[in-house]
Amino acid sequence: MKAKNSFLRKAVLLLYISILHALILMAQFDSGKVEVIKDPRIDLLVKKQAQINRVAVFKNSRGEYKGYRIMIMNTNNRDVAYKTRAEVLRYYPEHNVYMAYQSPYYKIKMGDFLKKADADKFKRELTSMFPQGTFVIQDIIKLSPEDEARLLKEAEGEE
């Protein structure tokens, strides 16, 4: 009886292997065409995610834009810092000027640049006004709605 069960098991196993082998062969000799049926909204989601990924390069983990600013002055003299800030605002009202106090220094930075090349270009303009030196530094920047829209449009155009 044991020999009969063993033979029966081997026969069933051999039958399964043969059927599996036949299915694999049929799959290999198929015409090579695959029909994909999917929801068309998937393409829209993929496109949107690609756009998000291109813009995410400019953001940190908190969703703030990473960019560059120009460090104009780092001084411990408060009056000089305020005068310099006022002077910069007078000559460059279109650029944001930031003043921060980090004990014991007042730091004056200006501009919100996404690209270092843009910051370097503007830094060269400031050289005559601040001969003691200005520096391009990485910082969290504020992007105007117009610049953000332009960035999103550029990201869409890269597709």
Reading side by side through the largest sheet, how are the strands ordered?
2-3-1-4
Q: From N to C, what is the helix and strand string?
A: HHEHEEHEH
Question: What's the average pLDDT?
Answer: 84
Would you count the extended β strands for me? 4
Please give the alpha-carbon distance between the first and last residues: 70 Å
Total of helices: 5
Main sheet overview:
4 strands, antiparallel
Outline the low-pLDDT stretches.
Answer: none
Tell me what you see in this structure.
With 159 residues, the protein is an alpha+beta fold. Helix content is 51%, strand content 21%. It is built from five helices and four strands. Strands 2-3-1-4 form a four-stranded antiparallel beta sheet, with helices on one face. Helix 2 crosses helix 5 (145-157). It is elongated, with a radius of gyration of 33 Å. It starts with a helix and ends with a helix.
Task: List its salient traits.
159 residues; 5 helices
Give a short synopsis of this structure.
With 159 residues, this protein is α+β, with helices and mostly antiparallel strands. 51% of the residues lie in helices and 21% in strands.
